[in-house]
Structure formats: C-alpha cells, structure tokens
Amino acid sequence: MIDEFANGHQITVLAIETSCDETACAVVRNGRQVLSNVVATQIEIHRRFGGVVPEIASRNHTLAIENVVKEAMDKAGVGKDDIDAIAVTYGAGLLGALLVGVNFAKGLAFAWGKPLYAVSHIRGHIAANYIDSDLTPPYICLLASGGHSAILRVEDYSRLTLIAQSRDDAAGEAFDKVARVLGLPYPGGPEIERLAKEGRPVYDMPIPKRSDGLYFSYSGLKTYVINLVHTLSQKGKEPNKADIAASFQKAAVDQLAGMLTHVLKQSGLKKVAIAGGVSANGYLRSRIDALEAEGYRVHYPALGLCTDNAAMIGAEACFMSLCEAAPADLSLDAKATVPLG
Fewer CB within 10 Å, N- or C-terminus of the chain? Predict the structure, then answer.
C-alpha cells in the first residue's frame, strides 16, 4: 500500500456521516487507514414504512450521534488532542438528516479548535476505494448508488470530470422501487440480488439505445417491471418474482457494465473503480471482474464500505487536506444536492 503522506504531512480525521438513515462516525489516518468505523443503522425502523421517512431519520440521528462519536473515538483509542481535523458530509442527502451531522461537527470543530472539512457524499463514495488500497488517480470510476448513476474520470485527488450520468432514475433507486413492487422489504437492492439467485433472466427487459450521447436511464426499466407485474395480476397469473428479479438485475447491471466498458475503451486508462451502494451487488462485480481478462485493473471498496459510512468521508477529507483544500468555516450549511463533477 502506498503512502502519499510519507513526506511529513500526516493527518488523523474524525469524520461524521448522516446523509440518510445511517448515523456514522469514523477515525481515519492519512486517507487509507481506518482506526474505527461505527455505524448505527435505522434499517429496522424504516423497514415498516417501505423506505426512509426523512423526519424519523433526522430524529434518530439526533438521538444517536453523540454516542456514535464517543464509540468511534473509544474504539480508535484517541482523544481530542489526537484529532487533527473534523470532517462531515454536507451534501447530498436528506436535508434534515444532513443538518444533524453538520451542526454536531461544527460544534466539535469550534469547541476543539480544529479545522472543519465539508465533504461531498459523492466524493466520499469514490474515496472509499482508497482505504486499504493502492489505487491512485487517474482512473475511471463507475458511481452507482440510490441517488446517482454516473461515470467519472478521476483526474487526481481533487479533480473529477463527469462523462455520463442518468437522465432520470438512479440504478439504486430503481432497485429499491422494483423491490417494493415485488413486495420485498427495504432496502431493496440486497433483496433483489438474493431473490435473483433463485430465478432466471427469462424476460427481455429494455436497455436504452442511445444515439445522442452517453447517459443512463432507468425510468423505462422500472416502468416495464411495474407494467409486467400489473398485467400478470390482471390475467390472474401469479408473477414469478424470482425470474422478474433476475431479469431486472441483468438489465440494470448490463446497462452499467456496458457503458463502463465503452467509456474505458475510449479513455485509454487501464484502472477502474466502482463506488456507491450498488457496487456491493455480486452480479455487477462479476461483470466488472471480466474486464481483468482484457488487461484492466479493477478496484472495489470492501463490502462494508459500499453503503453509507463515515470512513469514506474521513478518507476524502484526508486527501482534501493533502491537496490543500480550504477548510469550511462555521457558516457551513447542508445541501440536498451537490454537483457530481
């Protein structure tokens, strides 16, 4: 594993992440070493509603955050004097949930006299690939999460170039909505993958035929599944949910893998990374693994770092510091959306 911080620039970051329904805190050193990574999940709370209820998520972040931060520091064996900077996700995400983390982080930064780094959730997902890894820019990154489907060229630790993104739904969002149509519990992505293993991809589901640029589209695929289930029910037929799940997963992932392969061949780069919650999908990983036979080097985050966590936020903050990014001031506010590039 390489060490960009070997020439005297050492940094230990306490990072906080509250963008959706996970209250998370981590202590990260030099962007690649995780000293602790604590996540308090709300999945069981929101499962009864079939998805995340923003107000409930915010209230539970407020209840959990102090204990989660304390646990992360205890597990890392550090005190406030060992922390060089505070990092927090300021966007994108649920505004109320983000505000809990942002305000707590601002309070810590003020009380401890530490610099505060405002981290993009999107860049955090990408930075998860640096943890316990030797990945360095430049490379092509496929971002596939509940809020984004995109391909980016990572020029260096501070610069991203957007190559392609979704025109409508994100891949992860489509997984969750199709899971709901099939009566599967939240979160839908792992449930679709589990059920797909019991079925066969017998339905020829749509993949966009692009003639006007590079983009993803999942609205049509999601609508196809809804109409298929409705039509079968109207005819008095019981939908084979496993076959539908397998067919949907194949179409959803083939779109991601196909576009990524096309972009890689155009880019001339031989390194590729996958980021976001959908990067945990086994079928997607098998499709991307096939690129190794063509001479590409594939990088994934560890499975526990694919979904929302604070270690990825801490990693990104470390590289922001290395690149001499300016810390945020105490007027920092949360943002529901942030730019991809």
Answer: N
